[in-house]
Amino acid sequence: MEVKDVHHAYRRRVVLRGVDLRLRAGTLCGIVGENGAGKSTLLKVLSGELRPTRGTVRHSGRFGYCPQHVVLNDALTVRQHLTFFQTAYCLADVRYAEEVMEVLGFTGYADERTSVLSGGTRQKLNVTLALMHDPQVLLLDEPYQGFDWDTYQRFWDLAARLRDAGRSVLVVSHLAYDTERLDELWRLDGGLLRPDEAGVAA
Ligand SMILES: Nc1ncnc2c1ncn2[C@@H]1O[C@H](COP(=O)(O)OP(=O)(O)OP(=O)(O)O)[C@@H](O)[C@H]1O
């Protein structure tokens, strides 16, 4: 994914002031920044949900986006969500989604309506839906919110596996824990992305 000189403003509130980013294949990349720095705005621009006021975003291949706020249909079960997205992604089966469910530890909830799921389990489904078509570029906005410690660790192992399989994974968070798991760490500050070397593996 290639991002060049991206600007975005909500009316007169300028949030992004010329963001450049190159997300290479086989890279696990993090973006951190304070609350309100514009991280979600940037991901919405990268995913195409928002149009930049200036600049370009280019990517090729399958694309996955996990938004910060869970978007589920409370009338449907977990399995029905998988079927719905299977159709949307034109997948032959949901075996990979089931593998991800196993990794994130919520297979036992397959037949539950999402309205009765805990916040953490809803988030597990949110993440699963974003990556069940094995996207080449995966954008995750605060993906581990609500995860218990064990799931949090398994999430990072999964992200590392995707990176090792040649996928580009971008994780956005206001918390810069576990930065040693990342290949690149960027800080969004003042509407610009700057390298943040703290703790990134050499
Ligand atoms: N739809 C909108 N209309 C107007 N202003 C908005 C809108 N969405 C976000 N903003 C403003 O843009 C700025 C950046 O918001 P954004 O949600 O991108 O930040 P963030 O870094 O993701 O924050 P957080 O860590 O709290 O999730 C904030 O000042 C926010 O109030």
TrEMBL record:
Which InterPro entries does UniProt cross-reference here?
AAA+_ATPase (IPR003593), ABC_transporter-like_ATP-bd (IPR003439), P-loop_NTPase (IPR027417)
Q: Which SMART domains match?
A: AAA
The GO molecular function terms of this record are: ATP binding
Question: Looking at the Swiss-Prot or TrEMBL record, what is one Pfam family this protein matches?
Answer: ABC_tran
Q: Which domain of life is it from?
A: Bacteria
Task: Cite the entry's keywords alphabetically.
Answer: ATP-binding, Nucleotide-binding
Domain (ABC transporter): give its ranges.
1-202
Known SUPFAM superfamilies for this protein? P-loop containing nucleoside triphosphate hydrolases
Q: Mind telling me what this protein is named?
A: ABC transporter ATP-binding protein
Recall the taxonomic lineage recorded for the source organism: Bacteria, Bacillati, Actinomycetota, Actinomycetes, Kitasatosporales
